Automatic annotation (TrEMBL):
NCBIfam families: rRNA maturation RNase YbeY. The keyword Transmembrane does not apply. Keywords: Endonuclease, Hydrolase, Metal-binding, Nuclease, Zinc. The lineage of its organism: Bacteria, Candidatus Kaiseribacteriota. Gene3D superfamilies: Metalloproteases ('zincins'), catalytic domain. GO terms for biological process: rRNA processing. It comes from Candidatus Kaiserbacteria bacterium RIFCSPHIGHO2_01_FULL_49_13. Belongs to the endoribonuclease YbeY family. GO terms for molecular function: endonuclease activity; metal ion binding; metalloendopeptidase activity. This is rRNA maturation RNase YbeY. Its cofactor is Zn(2+). Pfam families: YbeY.
Length: 124
């Protein structure tokens, strides 16, 4: 049973994003994805790279067909203007970025090109 589960651990509304369409386009229909909307405390706790700061997005691949993304909208709200995007578009970008990590891509030109292509596709 492949699919998507979105869980909100905050008191704020879950962002209205095309999670399922993004998952199917990037990871495939058979991929099992959990998206968890988190606040600063949980984001900071799970951030193993920069232990003292909350991350805007974290990706955890569990297998080739299963993974989890933690999305921190509060941190994204602090950062979106630096990226010259609307807040909503920055959230879409972060989810794309996280899913590409689940797919195995690392930071670099290949990932940047894929992000730009997917962002254009899902900006409508």
């Amino acid at each position: 049973m492949a699919g998507l589960v979105v869980t909100n651990t905050t008191k704020n509304r879950t962002p209205r994003l095309p999670f399922l369409r993004l998952k199917d386009a990037i990871l495939g229909k058979k991929y099992e994805l959990s998206v968890v909307i988190v606040g600063d405390a949980l984001s900071r706790k799970r951030n193993t790279r920069h232990k003292h700061t909350p991350a805007n997005i974290l990706s955890f691949p569990y297998s080739q067909s299963e993974g989890e993304i933690l999305l921190n909208p509060r941190q994204a709200k602090r950062e979106y203007k630096k990226f010259k995007m609307t807040y909503q578009m920055f959230l879409v970008y972060l989810v794309i970025h996280g899913m590409l990590h689940l797919k195995g891509l690392r930071h670099g030109s290949t990932m940047s090109q894929a992000e730009a292509r997917l962002l254009r596709r899902f900006s409508n």
